[in-house]
């Protein structure tokens, strides 16, 4: 049977995700990923029945760490992890492939600079069964998309998506920073119209959203099959749409097209 890391997804603002991560549903110790808003994290902990072991911040944009300073006031001793000195309240500055054991879970920090220069994704597994992990991708990888290249370049995003994240096991569950899935899949269908997996997933995503449900998580395998930014090498149709098969040029062109789509 699959020992699952337990993740509870919380929507903040209109489309931001904050996550509670635990070894199992009944576990008390928890990690929080991306504190979107100033709110009472003491109240949240009480309501959810959790003891917060640490905060993991993916990047310094305010809609991912707007709650860090409030959290630091409420909990002066609980560590806040991040990869960028601009992350407020951070007291654990992490590097690529740094590991930590937090809340009885194994956390591997993956440096994915591009959207911001200090962006970190967090790959989390149960130390007793490291096969079935989850990864929190902030604004690097969205379901069927990726973040804008605010502080980086196409080669950096290509490395983040197609070297670092693509190497995680196929069944790794992906939890992104935003609910952008429907718009991303519409773009994916536009650049790769013959991809039936994209069309199927778009229908599914639209029905999830219509019912007030989330489209997260996805999986690494699912992204390899549907995410145009992870298909610049494998999809001849995308290469044809972009007029060439250079993956880095393709990544840059795709991002430009998506920005205007």
Automatic annotation (TrEMBL):
Q: Does the keyword Metal-binding apply?
A: yes
Metallo-beta-lactamase domain: from which residue to which, for each copy? 15-178
Query: Biological process (GO) annotations?
Result: methylglyoxal catabolic process to D-lactate via S-lactoyl-glutathione
Question: What GO MF annotations does this protein's record show?
Answer: hydroxyacylglutathione hydrolase activity; metal ion binding
Q: Which keywords describe this protein according to UniProt? A: Hydrolase, Metal-binding, Zinc
Question: Which cofactors, if any, are listed as required?
Answer: Zn(2+)
* Pathway given in the UniProt record: Secondary metabolite metabolism; methylglyoxal degradation; (R)-lactate from methylglyoxal: step 2/2
Q: Does the keyword Transport apply?
A: no
As its record notes, the protein acts as a catalyst of: an S-(2-hydroxyacyl)glutathione + H2O = a 2-hydroxy carboxylate + glutathione + H(+)
Q: Which enzyme class, named as a word?
A: hydrolase
Extract the Gene3D superfamilies matched here. Ribonuclease Z/Hydroxyacylglutathione hydrolase-like
EC number of this enzyme? 3.1.2.6
**PANTHER family, alphabetized:** BETA LACTAMASE DOMAIN, TENZING NORGAY, ISOFORM C
**Any idea what this protein is called?**
hydroxyacylglutathione hydrolase
